[in-house]
């Protein structure tokens, strides 16, 4: 069965006040740059359209970049909607298209394809609600402090201090239409299950809105992560003596950095792989395989990273 066409929510200027006073009130909680122009990823949803409105109100000369994945009927109408909103706000508009085929990991593949064609450092409309969902997603995936710190406010994510309801209110006030993505109602993607089921259940059990709580936890963990990373940066990760003398949390971070640099930006070393390297550094096995075609060998008190797996070493 073909996916349903996007549902268009029709709003008009009469639905909100004539001046965008509400949007101006929110600017103090937005982490927008002091000057523009500002590239904005605008899907046609309320959050990204609100970003366009707020950037315009801040005088940043925003440019709306819309990416059409071509995965559902009517997707071209979303580009038309974003183009119309950009014209109304006096913003620039760029239409982009990527080709994707249905199949496994569609959400992740679509995201990767989208950011591959968007400008570097493009701002997104992620809100505090998205941040809370990201914290829970990363928690369920077993992430450490870096993952639980979720998205960093500012620059790429200037609206993380706003709620989803507030971005919708901004669009209403501006008299803008927005698309409700039908895929947000599907129960397959983990984020949707968290948004529709897990987070409301947790809030009910806690007796309060958990979005601010989870966002505050992310801020605290991100600050801890930044400090620990700074301290770990003083450790020479290839020096067995320095690794052995360092506190375990810092030694792990130093080794993780070493493995990330060796494996490339997409290489995520596991705790088990990091601990195998620390055993090598501590005088255990002479070498270990850490996966991803990477091996680490001890040689004269130094760790040497090799681009060859060693399947027989443990």
Describe the protein.
46% of the residues lie in helices and 12% in strands. The chain has three domains: 7-126 and 162-185, HUPs (Rossmann fold), CATH 3.40.50.620; 128-153 and 186-232, no CATH class; 235-306, no CATH class. By secondary structure, it is of the alpha/beta class. A hairpin with a 2-residue loop joins strand 6 (287-291) and strand 7 (294-299). Residues 1-18 have low confidence and may be disordered. It has helices spanning 21-26, 46-57, 75-89, 106-117, 128-140, 145-148, 164-174, 190-206, 211-232, 240-245, 248-263, 271-281, and strands at 7-9, 38-41, 62-68, 92-97, 178-180, 287-291, 294-299, 302-306. The chain has twelve helices and eight strands. It is elongated.
